[in-house]
Amino acid sequence: MVKVESFTMDHTKVKAPFVRKCGLLTGEKGDKVSKFDLRFMQPNEAAIPTAALHALEHLLAGYLREEVENVIDLSPMGCRTGFYFIVWGDVEVETIQKALINALKKVINSTEVPAANAIQCGNYRDLSLHGAIEYAKMVLEKFNS
Questions:
Q1: pLDDT tens digit at each of 145 positions of the chain
Q2: What CATH class does 5-144 carry?
Q3: Domain spans of the chain, in order of start
Q4: Residue pair 85/38 in contact by the 8 Å Cβ criterion
Q5: What is the DSSP string of 69-131?
């Protein structure tokens, strides 16, 4: 089986929340792509409920694009402890952490989840704005302490 980067990290030794650059890929034409681990919850100790994680995904998909240029994708982790964030270019962790903090502040002030309808979302009934706000507050509090 091919070696998967996320399986090589010792999940018992990290301290969430954190932003970790977990990959820098160079394409055939020299294009660079940076992949980040945006970890919100301590692995194997806590997980974000699906509806809150899904709402955070919808909210951060827009808010992070307001903060960072050349976004490729934001994807929730299957373990529900955070997200993978992928951007064009060789981007530094500090840039992404600052953008994440700003985006989480916007989540806290949100009054609705974007694209919360059957046309724009494949599971629009499983969204929790309240949960997204509460987890955003929790992560910001830990980043600020």
A1: 787 777 777 888 989 999 999 999 999 999 999 999 999 999 999 999 999 999 999 999 999 999 999 999 999 999 999 999 999 999 999 999 999 999 999 999 999 999 999 999 999 999 999 999 999 999 999 998 8
A2: alpha beta
A3: 5-144
A4: yes
A5: SSEEEEEE-TTSSEEEEEEES---HHHHHHHHHHHHHHHHT-SS-TT-STTT-TTTTS--HHH
Find out whether 64 and 7 touch, Cβ atoms under 8 Å.
Answer: no
Which residues 6+ apart lie within 8 Å of 58 measured at CB?
113, 114, 115, 116, 121, 127
Helix (H, G, I), strand (E, B) or coil at 55: helix
